[in-house]
Amino acid sequence: MIEERVKIVNNAGLHTRPAATIVKLASKYKCDFFLNKDGLHINGKSIIGVMTLAAEKGSEITLIFDGEDEQQACQEILEFFKRGFDEL
Amino acid sequence: MKTESEIMLKGIAAAPGIAISKAYIYARQKEEVADSAVTDLDEALEMLDTALEQSRKELRKIFSLAVDKLGEKRAAIFEAQIMILDDPILLSTIKNRITNERRAPEYIVNDEISKYTDLMNASHELYMKERSHDIEDIKNRILRNFKKKKWKSRIANDVIVVTSTITPSDTVLFSRVNAKGYVTDFGGLTSHAAIVARSLNIPAVVGLHEATSRIKDDDLIIIDGFKGEIFINPDEKLLKEYQKKIVKLAQRDSDLLKLKDLPAVTSDGKEIQLLSNLDILDEMEIVTQHCARGIGLVRTEGLFEEYEAFPDEEEQFKVYKEISERMFPGTVIIRAFDIGGDKVLPVDLHEPNPFLGWRGIRLLLDNPSLFKKQIRAILRASTHKNIKFMLPMIASLAEIRRTKEIVKECQEELKKEGTAFDKHLSLGVMIEIPSAAVLIKDFAKEVDFVSIGTNDLIQYLLAVDRGNEIVSALYQEFHPAVVQTINHIIQGGKESKILVSMCGAMAADPFAVPLLIGLGLESLSVSASAVPLIKRIIRNIDCKEVQGLAKECLALSTEKEINDRIHKYFNHKLQDQIKNLY
Known about the structure:
The complex is a heterodimer of chains A (88) and B (582).
Chain A: E1 2-7, H1 16-27, E2 32-37, E3 40-43, H2 47-51, E4 60-66, H3 70-82
Antiparallel strand pairs in A: 1-4, 2-3, 2-4
Chain B: E1 7-10, E2 12-15, E3 18-26, H1 41-70, H2 72-84, H3 88-101, H4 105-122, H5 126-154, E4 159-163, H6 168-175, E5 181-184, H7 192-199, E6 204-206, H8 211-214, E7 220-224, E8 229-232, H9 236-257, E9 273-278, H10 284-289, E10 295-299, H11 300-303, H12 313-327, E11 332-335, H13 341-344, H14 361-366, H15 368-381, E12 387-391, H16 397-417, E13 426-431, H17 434-438, H18 440-446, E14 449-452, H19 454-462, H20 480-495, E15 499-502, H21 512-518, E16 523-527, H22 531-539, H23 543-555, H24 559-578
Parallel strand pairs in B: 3-4, 4-5, 5-6, 9-10, 9-16, 10-11, 11-12, 12-13, 13-14, 14-15
Antiparallel strand pairs in B: 1-8, 2-6, 3-7, 7-8
Helix pairs in contact in B: 1-2, 1-5, 3-4, 4-5, 6-7, 12-15, 15-16, 21-23, 23-24
């Protein structure tokens, strides 16, 4: 299991478009993927779940990966967060 | 409450005919989501799948058409909504709960999705409330689709449908269970639902305002689609009177049908091309029964109204081919989809003025892949050489030229594929925007034929929405500007030696036909059910006489004068033909 803490860096925050992209990325991998914010534990393969996360610029989220391909999944999704969802 | 007896309500006569039957109140308002127990688990899960699949198709249809117009933000929301319908976590939770709790699938869907919207609404962020609306939207779409299926199984036969508004697909749906009439609180004459009712020969009265509040299920209703009146629980006397009228109408119809094999020629021997419009395939039977010589307008958007997604090339090809073969050697004029933005854009993007907005050729040229599929299907179906192609809502030459380029592209493709098509497929345009009427001679150089669409032409020329009761009296077929514009189009077409036809409601108005023929119109396309009556009018017209009538009307400068003149002619010359009609 891998846990990573990330900060939202783009202006618009975790809005609908990046939420959809995150779910699509996560669906490619076999491992479980969860997002944890302020005690809310969300399955990262569920679009409706990820959409309930209110994560504006500057807020922090914990990403949890667990399963055989967790390394690759973590790398790709973490990168996407760090690039500010390609909106920087 | 005592049964209300013999109340008369007056509305807009949207489709002619008279019927007496029991009322069926069709309410589409939000219903409570029933928390009933599930007895058949497989059936419940299947219902869930059907509702989800239906919702997916609807969203994909909107998305595929409007993606360029949605804006990035809205497009993303749409995509997310489609993804929600495939959300593995959400779906497995819902299915598990249905299986374990044995409660109605719509109840579980509502309950489960509401958990998420509640979370969103609890947030202090404003955009989360907005997002919750989007989720709410998808939830309602699924619930609606659960209901739709139920409605279909619940509708009784042979009823008069009473509803607040009616959509074209509702109209078709009810016609399958032999609806005897349509009564609505809102809606206008030119709405597509009214057109479908007319083509199916089902009387309709719209814009009654209080129909749904005054009428109860099983009330006995008389609907008079000629006068735009309905009677609730009529007394014996009135009932007898209307039963007589129905018998008389049936007699008239069978009289008219005797004309079916006779040509539409005037009494002095001029042949008029009398064609039929086609709105839905169910109408083909009436078209052939009434022996129209061809189809002057296939409203393709109506043919596929029931499809959830836009029909692909193959589906369209089959339908066009069938129409072409059934009408052969008669002409079939197929009009490209005349869809308005109001039908495809999501509610929050609705245009403030849809009739002045994204519709007809504008929407098609913005969606080349949709347009090309239709053009390819029409070309492939054209091998019997009796198909012509027509464009809606043309306002400028550029639109015609751009379309010709696209047609050419499609022809090149088909050639390469070795697929047969009519190399000389005629191209025509609707003249329904005033700019097109003004430019008729320039347009005539670019196309093989034109067809006057009077409903839109009058609406745009006089700036009157016929569906808006406050101003509907100002919608006037015999307004001098309308008469002169039609004359301008007919003369312009004659000078340029191209065929001018008319396919709007005016062509099916018995009072207008003498004037139109007097103006020199040689081709009319009317709803299939109107063909026999119009043929009878034509056969009793003397060309020389109506030319004089037209000349006089062109010299008059008020609607009242023209209307009076036409009625004078009518009462004098044609009354015998129609006096026992109404």
